[in-house]
Amino acid sequence: MHLNLFSWVIVDCLDSTTVYGTQESKREIQEKMLKEATFGVADYVVSALALCISLSIGLYYACSGGRQATTAEYHLGNRNLNFLPVMFSLMVTSQSSILILGVPAETYLYGFLATISGFGFWFAYWLCARIVIPIVHPIKITSVNEYFNLRYKNNRVRFLTTVLSFIFWFIYLGIVTYGVSTAIESILGVPVWLCVVILSFCSMIYTAVGGIKAVIWTDVIQYSIMLTSVLAILIKGSMKVGGGSEVIRINSEGKRLDFWNFSLDPTLRYTMWNVMIGNTAKLFYFPLSQSSVQRIGCMPTIKDAYKMFYIVAPLMGLTFFLAGSMGLVSYAYFVKVKCDPLASKFIKNPNQIIPILVTEIFHETPGMAGLFIAGLFCASLSTVSSGYAVISSMTLQDIIKMKWPNLSEKRSTIASKLTVLVISFLTTGMALLLANIKGTLLKLAQMVMTIPTGPYTGIFLYSIFCTSATSAGAILGGIVSLVFYLWMAIGNIVLSPPSVEKKLAPAPLDMCFLNSTLVSYNTTTAAPTSSPASLEGFNQIYGMSFQWFDFIAIIIVFVVGLITSKIVGAPKEEDVDARYVLCFTEQFFPYLPVRVKHLLSCRSTIPKRRKQIKAEERQDNEEMIVGTSFPEKEKGVKKNFREEIR
After folding, report:
1. pLDDT band at 629 (very low <50, low <70, confident <90, very high)
2. Is 593 helix (H, G, I), strand (E, B) or coil?
3. Higher pLDDT, 346 or 484
4. One-letter-per-residue 3-state SS of 142-193
5. Is 435 helix (H, G, I), strand (E, B) or coil?
6. Which element (helix H / strand E) includes 492?
7. Smallest Cα–Cα separation from 438: which of 356, 501, 506, 375?
8. Which of 227, 408, 413, 556 would bridge with 481, disulfide CB 3.0–4.6 Å?
9. How high is the pLDDT of residue 20?
10. What predicted TM-score, i.e. pTM, was given to this entire model?
11. Are residues 180 and 380 in contact, defined by beta-carbon separation less than 8 angstroms?
12. Whole-number average pLDDT of the chain
């Protein structure tokens, strides 16, 4: 049996004072053994190389091309970047330490149904491709919040969505930074605060000096390293267990593969209903967020933007599947060695399951633990750097340019770079704050991080699909939705409903010692745990699974928004600019007969008007190519959007 996990068992059986001649506690000896046995020179070299590559790419783009001298180059790569790297960057932005640590931990504790929730990315990106791309790409905006200014002709809704976006990104980056720090702490013993500072500093350097080009190209390299580390864990772990079929057999016996749960009980943590419907609604934010809009803006043509979304969707589902499979391999391995590290109290945080597995299976392979740390670091660096770029572009367009609309390109670029510096300090503080919240990273992300995303997504969809939408309806609907989400999330966190928190039986503990006493368990029984009291009365509402929160929040925005618009006076459809709204039936049922679509859309004129605008724009482009000027009657269609925003 490998020394790392079980050397401390021997220590428990011996008198530490007699054997070691010191007064060191057993835990201190265990931590020393773990550190000495798992990380060598090769591991440090591999990890350092990953950081050096990221920093060198940032420095390269700081000194090449236009040297990030304009905001168009700094934030959008002059809207002319290659399709492939932008696609990988879009994918990696939402794949971080939450994916590498949180998804396997959630699968380990609750089964493979937690992994299937990742297919919500697939559905969300495919659906949103028909929503955000036809709106955002033609109007060529830098910040997604500029859309709301164009849609409502005022800044009120834009202000609310900007605040929601900032809240999301600060929480998200804090969770990501904290997640990688817990893993490094469990392997190296490095304090969480130091890991947080190193990660934030590295991301800040190459984002500030290299701009979006540095972020995108480092994302490509970092995704390659992350994927290599995940595949290495899956292959080596499966070999240790006895092959893929043995992994499946053990997890099937441990009920980790019982994912065909179609129960209508809303309190269950995972069912096929809340995974496919609720989680898809939860993940709608990502394709509608600033990170996606920024990458849509980097594409030279709208066809490239569509292609990017359609390819990214299944790739994200596949990556989620691989991450969840690590949880299955972890469970199979610890069943084989008959010692569950979580139930035996060897680790207290479920997010440390994968790091412990890595130290076990790669103890004889120099550099592999370093590859895991490098992969984890790269997954987090890509997300954090993308988040810095996102917040920087929103700060410039939604705050600085609103106050000083005539700010020069040079000063705007300098302001963007200084913003990255400030953001790094704020996210560092957020990461240290979130370190005090218990639970898996995936649970933390899906509940705390998504508090502002439900209202934001609701406002976005309400604005696009409802021609009767008003700024008052969007604001009131968003606020009511946010209050609902906060209320449910806080209640769920404080009360920890038992119906939501039921975990599957852990691996056996036959080979584990607890408090210097050998406790024998057979492979079918679990360590007894005390269950919290069941919720009663009105408190039962807090037992609802957090997977449903975003879906309900989006519905609240529509209901409150439409009622408010009716009260304050909804605009007529012909008065609404067709460039900023879509017809639902036209977008999602394009192949129905024209008469049927016209009937289902309540005889909306939006599709016809949008086609007319596209035809006029094509004609304008053709006239520009042959050197002719725009006819006076068509100049109204080709407005200057920047002037309109100001």
Report:
1. very low
2. coil
3. 484
4. CCCCHHHHHHHCCCHHHHHHHHHHHHHHHHHHHHHHHHHHHHHHHHHCCCHH
5. coil
6. helix 471-495
7. 501
8. 556
9. 36
10. 0.80
11. yes
12. 78
